[in-house]
Amino acid sequence: MQTKEMELIQLIALWLLFWVGAEAVINLKYGINEEMKPGSVIGNVTKDALKQGFQIALQPPYLRVISNSEPRWVELSPAGILTTQMKIDRDVVCRQNPKCIISLEVMSNSMEICVIKVEIEDLNDNAPRFPTSHIDIEISENASPGTRFPLEGASDPDSGIFGVQSYSITPNELFGLEIKTRGDGSKIAELVVQKSLDRETQSHYSYEISAEDGGDPPKIGAVQLNIKVIDSNDNNPVFDESVYTVNVMENSPINTLVIDLNATDPDEGPNGEVVYTFNSYVTEKTRDAFKIDSRTGIITVNGILDYETSQIFEIDIQAKDLGPNSIPAHCKVTVNVMDTNDNPPIISLLSLNTEMVEVSENAQRGYVIALVRVSDKDSGANGKVQCRLQGNVPFRLQEYESFSTILVDGRLDREQKDTYNLTIQAEDSGSPPLRATKSLVVKVSDENDNPPHFIKPHYQEMVMENNLPGSCLLAVSAEDPDLGMNGTVSYSIVPGEIKHMDVNTYVSINPSGRIYSMRSFDHEYTRTFDFKVLARDNGNPSLSSNATVRIVVLDVNDNTPVMTNPPLVNGTAEVSIPRNAGVGYMVTQVKADDYDEGENGRLTYTISEGDRAFFEIDQVNGEVRSTRMFGENAKPNYEITVVARDHGKPSLSASAYIVVYLSPDLNAQEPIGPVNLSLIFIIALGSIAAILFVTMIFVAVKCKRDNKEIRTYNCSFFYLRRVAEYSYGNQKKSSKKKKLNKNDIRLVPRDVEETDKMNVTENYSIDSSYVNSRAHLIKSTSTFKDLEGNSLKDSGHEESDQTDSEHDVQRGHYVDTAVNDVLNMTVPPNVCQLPDQDPSEGFHCQDECRILGHSDRCWMPRVPARVKSPEHGRNVIALSIEATTVDVPHYEDGTIKRTFATFGKDGPEDVERGELKGKRTQESQVCSPKANGGAVREAGNGREASSPITSPVHLKSPLSKPSSAYNTLKCRDAERIANHSLLRQPEGKDSEPAVREINTLLHDGRDKESPSSKRLKDIVL
User: Fold this and answer.
1) Per-residue model confidence (pLDDT) at position 857
2) Which residue, of 452, 620, 680, 843, is most buried by count of CB atoms within 10 Å of its CB?
């Protein structure tokens, strides 16, 4: 084999090292002699490799042969024994190369490389051999001594020293041999004439020429040399020079001139005509590369010259004339083949598959995927090659002295790109440079590096309740970009519990990701539930991910309302209410439950059957209330059917049959509803007010006991300057109420019996200390003009007196007042005293009073001058009245509910009222509402009406019995009477009869056109 082939084998071994990414490589060298028999053991590779730390599998095959330069000659057994396959003839395998090496590359299961070199030692098993059995040569008799005649040499296939080393001739005196060494190391022999010849003496000579090699012992080859002496031509051709040297470019085309030889012969005619030829020992290779013109001696190119193959040619030329006994002339032409950049680089990919390389996507940076060998047959700069990798790829080319490696230089991800087309470019340094490219397909193999990925991390599905078990709810999907089993996804439910039950009793999932219900869902039991779905690939190891699935169970109107209140027995409930219950009395509250939600659970209550004329129901809260009064002649019970209906589609309902009994023993009190925070707050305030009120009474009683001097006070409307608006006939009443200022009232202490304007005497006794203790509460420094100017009007109806005001407009009885503003007030004794008046005197006292004593007139209220106005003709009286606790009168007639709020609103059909009852007391309160701010409920609608201004009071007559009932008179009426009375001068009339008559007229004179009303007007005026 040639040397370059051996180098290629070595490079292949190096490539195998890098391609497999091995970290260890060892070299084993063996030497054998040629001519070994087949099956001869060269060496135990397994044993020798283990000695050098080579890792070998425990079981055969221990080693795998990757490459073998001469698989015909040697083989490696599975056990690692290297043997010959046939008889090795080095002279055939390597010819005459100085070194003959067979190279093998083997690899272990651990990806380690072992390079084995087997050197074949040459034996001197061949003797030199001449091409023919005899050599015939003619020599002119006139050949001078020293004339040379080249002889055809012997050949020996052995190499080196075992080749032809010398020639010898049978000893003689006429001829000798001269040995020359050629450029390739071969030996040639030339026959030299040593003495002059004489054909006439001897014309034929015969000698033996022997060729001897360098073996020990040497081998010899011989040939018979026959010399014929002929008559000679006197002049021989002569070359200009004996040696010529020329340079020829390797890319020279055929027929390119190499050299023009010239040999001269002074003879004439044929003896002077020269013919040029190659010597007999010029090789066939030289004859193929060049040719010579026999007539002209011109040597031209005859074939392809390749510097990389042969750099030098030595051509032996002879020139001989055509005369008889011609003696040829010889010269030597040395042709140097000049190198040109005519060879582009050659790129060789040293891999098991030169077209495609497969690499794992998990390959780390620096992993070797291929070995590249780049060669250029040119020499010098023309053969210097640079190699690079084109494109932006995650690979790089690492160059070494005689080879390069392709390494992984970035992260590989098969899911992003699974194939790379690499282009390797090699360029030499010639001028111009030559380039070569080579393509390599790199296929990225898949690894299970991607877990399944759900399209959505959260799934939500709406499902109607009462679904069919086994129905498909939804489908989940996960993607895995890996290939094959690495990308095959299967689904399962993550173990868990829903409502303390296994999640698998609710849902199931098939391998394709479809989720099915395992039961019928109930919205009222389970409205939503969550579970997790696991997606797992089939890689090794497998990867997984999960997603959350929420199932929302939608409500269906599948629950009928259920009556919960009042309690039903066989669908019937019995309730009792007072027979005297008024309009708006809450009979009961119907309640029903519906387990559905939204419109399906929203209930509406209606009365569908029965005595619907007597009852009404709130559609929202289910309160059943009366719509009219029940009289004495009302039947004992009433029956209604209440229906609770939801708003679902279709609507579902429940009904209750309610029997309402009228009971005379029950009070007409509303059922106590559920206690709320507002009620508790009101009760707390009421309790505090009651405690304060009791405390005040206790203090007043205690002060009264401790005070020995009993004084009487008359609560007179002395400073009342408000003009009452009273309408008669078609005259309208002003809608604005008049308020009584606290300064309009004063408490007048009296130690003697007082006679009021109507001569009504009363003995008022009160503890002066109590009055003095309360005097600081009243701030009154106003004059009569101030009082008149400060009289304010109300801004209209208030919530508490709206009903009264509206009813009074229709009735025509208007007595406007604000007496309630002065409740629980006391006035200092001197508040009503003139600046120059004795504190012990009244307003009407004169000089004779100071001498003879005071009369009743002295203590009458001061009345300002009468003012002309459109209403000056109206009579006004001043009454000394007191406010007592409001008593709610109960009437036997159960058809009408009467309270103080209904005063003045009864029609002509009203039953006869009780007598006005009351008794003049020593209380100082004026026009007080119900004690502790208590409210009264308006009949007909059940609303509580509480007005601190328009609450009614009782007028108590001193002549009536304590048990007799008074008619209700509002403070506004009393205020108007008081205001009008201030405009009139006292007439000294006895007040007792006037009071009795006024009480009677107030009781009977409801109608403004009645005689009693006219009589009352006359008395006042």
Assistant:
1) 59
2) 452
